[in-house]
Each structure stands twice: as C-alpha cells, then as structure tokens.
Design brief:
94 residues, 3 strands, three-stranded antiparallel β-sheet, alpha+beta, Split barrel-like, 3 helices
Length: 94
C-alpha cells in the first residue's frame, strides 16, 4: 500500500502541528536518540514512520504493514504509549 502524497502531507502536518512533543518522545524512546532535542515527522509509508531529529533521519517501523489510512493513527498511538512506558512518563488519553 502506498499512501497518496496528499495523505502523507496531511498526516505529517497533523503530527508536526498537533503532536510534535509526541514525536519527540517516540524518537527518544524508540528511535535510539534519547538525547534528541527536536523531531519532526518527515514521511510515512506502509512500513514505518520517519522523523528528522537533530538533523538525522530516524525510521521507526509499524507493528505490521499498514493497508489503510486509519491504521496510521492506531500505530502512532501505540508508539506513543510504548514510548511513555519506556520513559516512565504517564501517557495521556488519545
């Protein structure tokens, strides 16, 4: 499955405008960059979400290959909650 350019741009915009702090937590916990100071969603595809963190591209795979847009939200919430658990931070409800 390939998401259209419009879908990718909409998801990136939403992540970067409304969930920038969540992206940073994900990069710190799951992206191998515990000292990252910034992270922006740079791309998504059926296999992973990509962040640019302090000038480096970080790829974080989904738990499964995505086949529809609605799964992106489920996967991002899963990554966020997993990251909070790893970092010992209480997750807020989504």
């Amino acid at each position: 499955m390939t998401f259209s350019a419009e879908v990718v741009e909409a998801i990136k915009r939403h992540m970067n405008e409304d969930h920038a702090e969540d992206g940073l937590l994900i990069v710190r916990a799951l992206g191998g960059r515990p000292d990252a100071t910034s992270a922006r969603t740079s791309d998504i595809d059926a296999e992973a979400i990509y962040f640019e963190a302090d000038g480096e591209e970080i790829r974080i795979p989904w738990s499964t290959t995505l086949t529809e847009r609605a799964q992106v939200r489920q996967e991002v919430v899963r990554l966020y909650k997993e990251s909070c658990d790893l970092l010992g931070i209480p997750a807020r409800g989504h």
